[in-house]
Design brief:
Layout lengths: L2 E4 L3 H10 L5 E4 L3 H10 L15 E4 L2 H5 L3 E4 L3 H15 L3 E4 L12 H8 L4 E6 L4 H5 L4 E6 L3 H11 L4 E6 L2 H23 L4 H22 L3 H5 L1 H10 L6 H10 L11 H16 L4 H10 L5 H9 L7
Parallel strand pairs: 1-2, 1-4, 2-3, 4-5, 5-6, 7-8
Antiparallel strand pairs: 6-7
Helix pairs in contact: 4-5, 8-9, 8-11, 8-12, 8-13, 8-14, 13-14, 14-15
Bound molecules: 1,4-dihydronicotinamide adenine dinucleotide and 1,3-dihydroxyacetonephosphate (13P).
């Protein structure tokens, strides 16, 4: 297997460091200056500082190197994935394309694997997702993720090739569940951050995590996901990590909203765009997802944390 990673942000870089323990890897950055600087310093100072990139990672901005691989991990933000796939579709036919991003596209309301299927229909699409900070992966700390692929033989092959001594992949065929878990946990992480930033308390945060999981299961049921996927690594596992750790950018974004502080607009916050996508998906399917809805409004500055709290608490009482 010849492995390449498209997207040299924090996650793409972390994955390249980890997968290099299995052999040669290509890491593609869209910016040629950034690729040259990374190749010279063997470090991604902008997105993943203080982690050495091994010598067997080829760092390049030349797409030809990506197209020479048979297996390409896509570590490009979810809202940019569709354009990238559309632009490069003719070179990606027949390849294994593994989405590593977490989100639902605002324009199409598709998850990352559905985007692959739409733009490169004869590729083998898969999803790599679950609880994993890029820094932990880069440090080769023990990590367990879900590798979801509809084609079980291809999935098993990818599971074997992409696992490392410290990165343990669990195989699933439930691509929809894996897509939804990764996308929605970011939305709920923003809500958790708002809760803590606004000093609503840890009990309230536990309620948000639990009721957030109920929303994930509700939309999962409507879209045909399997319940175990949403309580597994790619659902509950990632939700638990991201809703409780300052290392999460989505959580920190929520903290800033809650505390009414500014936040660096150049940070990748997948949950903000996905909250809007999910709210539109919910409308389409006649679902009530109140936490996702308030996160969409909070992220776009339409409401403040107090209004969000009142909105959630004043809803009619109901069965759990
Ligand atoms: N950082 C982390 O710990 C983890 C991130 N992820 C997911 O990985 C995805 C990427 O996130 P990060 O690498 O952390 O973000 P990042 O902000 O560190 O890097 C994003 C990268 O995408 C590139 N990029 C942006 N627009 C592009 C375009 N139109 N075409 C090609 N490349 C483009 C940027 O140049 C940058 O290198 C996200 O969906 C995120 O949810 C998943 C697990 C862990
Ligand atoms: O997905 C992640 C951990 O599993 C990273 O979360 P953030 O994008 O919130 O930093």
């Amino acid at each position: 297997m010849k492995i390449a990673i498209a997207g040299a942000g924090a996650f793409g870089t972390g994955l390249s460091i980890s997968l290099a323990s299995n052999g040669q890897v290509t890491l593609w950055a869209r910016d040629s200056d950034a690729a040259l600087a990374m190749a010279a310093s063997r470090e991604n100072t902008a997105r993943l500082p203080n982690h050495k990139i091994p010598g067997n990672v080829l760092i390049t901005s030349d797409l030809e190197h990506i197209f020479a691989a048979d297996t390409i991990l896509l570590a490009i933000p979810a809202q940019k994935l569709g354009d990238w796939l559309e632009e490069n579709a003719r070179y990606l036919a027949g390849k294994r394309l593994i989405a590593c991003c977490k989100g639902i596209d605002q324009a199409s309301l598709r998850g990352p694997v559905a985007q692959i299927e739409a733009y490169v229909p004869d590729a083998i699409g898969a999803m790599l997702t679950g609880p994993s900070f890029a820094t932990d992966i880069a440090k080769n700390l023990p990590t367990a993720l879900t590798l979801a692929c509809k084609n079980i033989d291809e999935g098993a092959y990818l599971q074997a090739c992409l696992s490392t001594p410290t990165l343990r992949l669990y195989l699933s065929h439930d691509v929809i569940g894996a897509e939804l878990g990764g996308a929605l946990k970011n939305v709920i992480a923003i809500a958790s951050g708002v809760c803590m930033g606004a000093n609503f308390g840890e009990s309230a945060r536990a309620a948000i995590i639990t009721r957030g999981l109920a929303e994930m299961q509700r939309i999962g049921r409507a879209l045909g996901a399997e319940p175990e996927t949403l309580t597994g690594l790619s659902g509950f596992g990632d939700l638990a990590l991201t809703c409780t750790s300052d290392a999460s950018r989505n959580y920190r974004f929520g903290l800033a909203i809650g505390a009414e502080k500014d936040f660096d607009p150049n940070t990748t916050i997948e949950g903000a765009a996905t909250a809007i996508s999910v709210t539109n998906l919910a409308k389409k399917h006649g679902l009530d997802l109140p936490i996702c809805r308030v996160v969409a409004d909070l992220s776009s500055g339409k409401i403040d944390p107090e209004t969000a709290l009142v909105t959630l608490l004043s809803r009619p009482l109901r069965k759990e």
